[in-house]
Amino acid sequence: MSNITACPLDCYDACEIVYEDGKLKLKGLKSGHTQGFLCPHMNHYEKYATIQKPRYKGKEITLDEALLKLKEMIGSCEKSEVLHYRGSGNFALMQEVTDHFFASYGAVLTEGTLCDGAGEAGIVEGRGSNKNMPIHEVAKSDVVIFWGRNPHTTSSHLLPLIKDKTIIVIDPIKTKMAKAADLHIQLKPHTDLFLAMLLSRFLHIENGCDEEFLEEFATGYEDYYELTQNLRIKAVLEQIDVSLGQLGDLLGLVKDKKVAIVCGVGIQKYSDGVDVMRAIDAFAAMLGLFTKEGCGVSYLGSSRDGISSPFNKKSKKVSKVNTEFSNFKTVFIQGANPLAQMPNSTRVRESISKVDNVVYFGLYENETSEIADLIIPAKSFLYKDDVRTSYSHNVMSFMPKVAHSEVGISEYDLCAYLCKEYDIKVESEEFYIRHFKNFAVQKIDGSWYVENREEVPYKDGFDTKSKEFIFLDELDSKVEESQGLHLITCKSPTSLNSQFNRQESVFLHSSLGFDEGEVVRVSSVEGSVELRVKHNDDLRHDCVLIYSGTKGVNNLTTHKHALSTKSAIFQENKVEISR
Ligand SMILES: Nc1nc2c(c(=O)[nH]1)N[C@H]1C(S)=C(S)[C@@H](COP(=O)(O)OP(=O)(O)OC[C@H]3O[C@@H](n4cnc5c(=O)[nH]c(N)nc54)[C@H](O)[C@@H]3O)O[C@H]1N2
Ligand SMILES: Nc1nc2c(c(=O)[nH]1)N[C@H]1C(S)=C(S)[C@@H](COP(=O)(O)OP(=O)(O)OC[C@H]3O[C@@H](n4cnc5c(=O)[nH]c(N)nc54)[C@H](O)[C@@H]3O)O[C@H]1N2
Ligand code: SF4
Ligand SMILES: [Mo]
Predict the structure, then answer these.
(1) What are the DSSP calls for 501-566, one per residue?
(2) Below-70 pLDDT ranges, the chain
(3) What's the gap in Å between 364 CA and the centre of ligand 2?
(4) Which residue out of 45, 115, 265 has the highest number of ligand 1 atoms within 8 Å of its CB and is therefore the one to mutate?
(5) Ligand 2 centre and the CA of 482: distance in Å?
């Protein structure tokens, strides 16, 4: 068995791991993008207790009995009453093999996303596709703008690449990166669209635009400049809590420099998230950041970009944001904890309580395993064959099985069992792994890269019909000024969404008058949650921080979609605090 594999978690970095037989500690591969270190999740991976035995209605059963039960549950209703709900607990490519069974069988799959969808839709509207600036290009940049992204927590392998660079942070929280930055704009949440538009406007006024680029690839820029003129500068700056001086400072730092805008999901957890991303992308276009080395926008690309799927996925689909579980009789949940991670938990709980057969196929006990009728333990990544790619760089990592375990079943084996029972054609596991590997080429640094991904995308123009960048042509948003505090629900350093050490607190600025340690009720139009207060003076006074994965946080969030795309909007609702 090989002893090199890769981390399966939903994370920008997609680290490569050395497994030493009999040793509990996993190590980061020294060569390549992992640079010899992992993060707390993988450093302690083997300490987290996994589900050991299948269960039906609370009683332990054998794996064979569990598979038989699963087959019966699937066969017990109309095909269209079976839902396959798959999350992102494991990001490797073989997770999708189960789609093949369910789609071929005639069941319903999901579409849309809880994650980056609004931002992606904004990028696609402007550029015609979402081709990402691979994160390692940042090594060639002079200036890095972290815009709604928290690299110390969510992409630590980027940190060694940016040591001597000019750093700008745009974030309502004074993050660790913000404290070390040359400039931190601690704007009011949900106002990035206006900041980005004002930056474009002043760049144009100061003749800082890349005219050569704009004339060739983005000729709508004069119209866009006109659109930005609809903003009343003084009033808007006041509303978004940014000063004219800060705009000037930012423009001074980026003009004529190689600039990377490293954008995270923080900016787009709102109904107008699509337009927010378009406005940031437009600022990048005004600066001429596309087509040049060390420049561009690095967001979440698609980890499947450049790789075709060998699986049948043709099926009816329902949104995974506002899924009406009660329309189904059998719901098969894989690699997800929807009862905690989907928005509007009360709605999810109620809807799923009406389902006859809830199946949970995962590694850990959580809110979803608690209510499931049938629980099937998965094999962790160390004990099965797989391949992974990243949504932030172009490396393809092979994930051969590095050890043997009797516990659980792999996605492939579960799928192969169901295909056999229902007479559906499925290829061998090796066939699929080989299919994925065929999309990679080895480069001189020894790593394998997805062949069809470019280091500098859009060199020959954009993927829109006109080959040009399409600017936002209407301004539908207003600065949101309703009553209440802004909910910030970003990623925790101690958990990966609801896996590992989940936080249990609400973080508040000490000036709000709540005592450290007291239990408060946080409420929104959707519901409420009781949490213990921790003070955090890196927050703005008008913000409440509850990390993703905190139990009950999604009692507060709405199951509405972002405008024009099926993406969740976890920060749309304002909240109130009471004793
Ligand atoms: N440790 C850890 N790492 C993870 C994860 C995890 O749960 N834990 N989850 C993984 C997943 S699924 C994802 S999608 C990625 C996401 O990782 P990131 O893209 O970094 O996303 P977030 O942590 O949600 O938010 C990033 C920053 O956006 C800021 N922010 C919030 N609202 C606004 C706003 O209105 N404007 C601006 N400018 N900033 C705002 C937050 O304060 C935060 O600092 O991380 C992955 N990596
Ligand atoms: N409030 C709030 N809510 C959020 C977010 C937020 O920022 N704030 N972020 C959203 C985002 S960006 C995301 S991506 C989602 C993530 O939400 P989910 O996709 O639900 O991800 P996790 O919470 O990580 O839970 C994944 C489950 O996958 C299982 N698992 C792990 N590995 C494997 C495996 O190899 N096989 C199988 N079968 N199962 C496995 C584990 O048991 C784990 O419980 O949450 C969203 N929800
Ligand atoms: S940084 Fe990300 S990819 Fe690397 S070990 Fe941690 S979770 Fe996995
Ligand atoms: Mo995510």
Answers:
(1) S---EEEE-GGG-PPTT-EEEEE-SS-EEEEEEEE-TTS-TTEEE--TT-TTGGGSSEEEEETTEE
(2) 1
(3) 11
(4) 265
(5) 31
pLDDT at 476: 86
CATH number of 485-578: 2.40.40.20
Task: Retrieve residue 203's tokens.
Answer: 């760049």
Ligand 2 atom, smallest distance to 265 CA:
12
Q: At 248, list the tokens.
A: 């000037």
Q: Which atom of ligand 1 is nearest to the CA of 265?
A: 19
Q: Which residues pair with 307 in a beta bridge?
A: none
Q: Give yes or no for residue 32 CB within 6 A of ligand 1.
A: no
Distance CA 498, CA 339 (A): 10
Q: For the chain, what are the domain ranges?
A: 4-109+319-388+395-449, 117-298, 485-578
Q: State which fold the 117-298 domain adopts.
A: Dimethylsulfoxide Reductase; domain 2 (3.40.228)
Tokens 């123009």 -> residue: 461
Residue 308: count other Cβ atoms within 10 Å of its Cβ.
Answer: 11
Candidates 417, 384, 431; CA nearest to 403 is 384
Cα-based distances in Å from 493 to 40, 131, 295: 8, 28, 28
Please tell me the predicted confidence (pLDDT) of residue 487: 98
Class of domain 4-109+319-388+395-449 as given by CATH: alpha beta
pLDDT score, position 272? 97
C-alpha distance from residue 117 to each of 318, 464, 539, 561 (Å) = 15, 19, 26, 10
CA-closest candidate to residue 265, choices 495, 497, 72: 497
Q: Provide the 10 A C-beta neighbour count for residue 494.
A: 15
Residue 535 phi/psi, 5-degree rounding, is -80, 145
> What's the CA gap between 447 and 17, in Å, rounded?
13
User: Facing residues of 262 across strands?
Assistant: 146, 298
Q: Which position has the token pair 């508040």? A: 508
Q: Where are the strands (E) in 342-459, listed by range?
A: 357-362, 374-377, 386-389, 396-399, 440-442, 448-450
CA distance 355 to 376: 18
Q: Which of 101, 27, 25, 145 is nearest to 427 (CA)?
A: 101
| Beta carbons within 10 angstroms of residue 527's beta carbon | 17
- CB of 543 closer than 6 angstroms to any ligand 1 atom: no
Residue type, 100: H
Token couple for 191: 């106002």
Is residue 445 classed exposed, middle or buried when 0-12, 13-18 and 19+ CB atoms within 10 A define those classes?
exposed
- Give the per-residue pLDDT at 480: 84
Q: Residue written as tokens 């035995």?
A: 53
Residues with CB under 6 A from ligand 2: 8, 10, 87-90, 114-115, 265, 334-337, 341, 361-364, 366, 378, 381, 489-490, 496-499, 548, 553-554, 557, 570
Instruction: Identify whether the C-beta of residue 543 lies closer than 8 Å to the C-beta of residue 266.
Output: no
pLDDT of residue 1: 62
